[in-house]
Specification:
heterodimer, A: alpha+beta, Enolase-like, domain 1, 5-stranded antiparallel sheet, 13 helices, globular, B: 165 residues, 2 domains, 16% strand, binds flavin-adenine dinucleotide, binds FE2/S2 (inorganic) cluster
């Protein structure tokens, strides 16, 4: 690890002031940042520890829904009774990620901002435009079994590794950003950027801004949800493919559907075309199959990750069937 | 950068001057010679470095000592009270829940954290709840039995707490 200055700050103003310094980075739970610093992939000159900010509340919003402070620990969010009851998909997604120890330390903001697990990015030496702009992508012709098939470009096919964010995408969550003059809210679907030719630009977060909260819109009565994750071992492993499904039901009819995919895309991936097929529909296996086919239409697999396309279709099909059978109390 | 941190480790207060890069794991092992806490991977991938931080289980390899300032830590050296072993330590011994023993302090501290978390008190719940600790020797079946036994006894002693899931 390279030397750095450590600051424990107490106010948002201090945080945004200090993070404007070149080479400064925010520390929340540290479960990703400390790893990145030990690997010397991230070598900040200053570490701004925000743990003392009052951002660890889960509150109801006047408009319905919930506001989750960015310092809420992953475990506390997943086990929160209201979250388990109102947004089971979010609890399931969080509990499927990392390990209990990591989730006790990890925060919501850190989970949103965690870096990719691409082995070339993490090895610190291979050409990688995300790590060293302009050096190219080693996964292009190298090992890419764990890489994305959706949203990729020639310069990067690294996946966004989070489970929580896949559920947040299916819930249409809003990310609350503060630190600049204007506090602003960005839909999670617009928060992450496609790699295109600039894979080092990952999010809409600007210098001096920090994530202060995540807002969850209220789900209508009768909404049914499911998070399904498929991986190489049954626990403590990142997703090969995952799907978060949110189905708004009226009697036995699906009114609206939202589907987000993880493990196969460069960011938590929504599939609007496929979702549209389910609006005002009666659930059936055939319909779900067509929906799954549509969701993967834009996939660009390579040799080692071709299996993910079929796997993803099956995961979507299964998640839709499971969700339509689980009635919200 | 050098900084000073105050930590309560196994109920004893320590005021330490450290390099800002020091992790809790390195602090425990290298500075304080509390070598019961093991280093397996140093990347959060194995759980051998598990400690309790303000009562919650965490991986000490991924936490800067600086960010634990003013917090309290329990390691395997501090788990037992006076001369009697912790029920988990006893259960690990009586069920032979180890081979080489390298993962054992982490397993026990993890189980201690698990007991206070709202997991389902089922075999599947214990397996998933203990999945953050790898055992290279594959002592999993006996680890499971040991944790199960402590849970059962806890239910007898405190039925209300045990039924909370
Ligand atoms: C072995 C292992 C397995 C894992 N498996 C999974 C898995 O299966 N699924 C999964 O989803 N995750 C997994 N994770 C990742 C884990 O979820 C993240 O490490 C964690 O969520 C990061 O949160 P943190 O608070 O510790 O972040 P930190 O490490 O503190 O920060 C991470 C990044 O976010 C930035 N940041 C933090 N807070 C803010 C904020 N409020 N505003 C702006 N920027 C901020 C930091 O500057 C840093 O760049 C795994 C991690 C490990 C080590
Ligand atoms: S040494 Fe900390 S998890 Fe392996
Ligand atoms: S007993 Fe040897 S690693 Fe678990």
């Amino acid at each position: 690890m390279k030397p750095f200055r450590y600051h424990r700050i107490k106010t948002l103003q201090e945080a945004s002031h200090l993070t404007q310094e070149p080479g400064a980075v925010i520390l929340a739970g540290g479960t990703n940042l400390i790893d990145m610093m030990r690997l010397e992939i991230m070598n900040p000159a200053a570490v701004v520890d925000i743990q003392s900010l009052p951002l660890n509340q889960i509150e109801t919003l006047p408009s319905g829904g919930f506001r989750i402070g960015s310092l809420v620990r992953n475990s506390d969010l997943a086990f929160h009774p209201s979250i388990q009851k109102e947004y089971p998909v979010l609890s399931q997604a969080i509990l499927s990620g990392a390990s209990p120890q990591i989730r006790n330390q990890a925060t919501v903001g850190g989970n949103l901002m965690q870096r990719t697990r691409c082995t070339y990015f993490r090895d610190g030496i291979s050409p990688c435009s995300k790590r060293n702009p302009g050096t190219g992508c080693s996964a292009e012709h190298g090992y890419h079994r764990s890489h994305a098939v959706l949203g990729i470009s020639d310069s990067c096919s690294a996946t966004h590794p989070s489970d929580m964010c896949v559920a947040l995408a299916a819930l249409d969550a809003q990310i609350v950003l503060e630190g600049k003059k204007e506090k602003r809210t960005v839909p999670i679907t617009e928060f992450y950027l496609l790699p295109q030719n600039t894979p080092w630009k990952e999010t809409a977060l600007e210098p001096a801004e920090i994530i202060t909260a995540v807002d969850l819109p209220e789900l209508p009565e009768g909404t049914r949800t499911c998070y399904l994750k498929v991986r190489d071992r049954s626990s403590y492993e990142f997703a090969l493919v995952s799907a978060a499904v949110v189905l708004e039901f009226n009697q036995n009819q699906i009114q609206k559907a939202r589907i987000a995919l993880g493990g196969i895309a460069v960011k938590p991936w929504r599939v609007p075309e496929a979702e549209k097929l389910l609006h005002h529909s009666t659930p059936s296996k055939k319909l779900f199959q067509t929906c799954a086919e549509t969701a993967l239409k834009g996939a660009k697999p390579k040799k080692d990750n071709e299996f993910k396309v079929e796997l993803a279709k099956r995961v979507i099909l299964h998640a839709l069937s499971l969700a339509s059978k689980t009635k919200k109390e | 950068m050098e900084l000073t941190v105050t930590l309560e480790i196994n109920e004893k207060k320590h005021v330490l001057t450290l390099d800002s890069r020091t992790t809790l794991l390195d602090l425990l092992r290298e500075e304080l010679h509390l070598t019961g806490t093991k280093k397996g991977c140093d990347h959060g991938q194995c759980g051998t470095c598990t400690i309790l931080l303000d009562g919650k289980r965490v991986n000490s390899c991924l936490i800067l000592a600086a960010s634990a300032d003013q917090k309290s830590i329990t390691t395997i050296e501090g788990l037992s009270s006076s001369n009697s072993l912790h029920p988990l330590q006893k259960a690990f011994i009586s069920h032979d829940a180890l081979q080489c023993g390298y993962c054992t302090p982490g397993q026990i501290l993890s189980a201690a954290g698990f007991l206070n978390e709202p997991w389902e008190r089922t075999t599947e719940g214990i397996k998933e709840g203990m999945s953050g600790n790898l055992c290279r020797c594959g002592a999993y079946p006996n680890i499971l039995t040991a944790v199960q036994e402590v849970l059962e006894n806890q239910k007898l002693l405190n039925p209300q707490k045990a039924s909370h899931s």
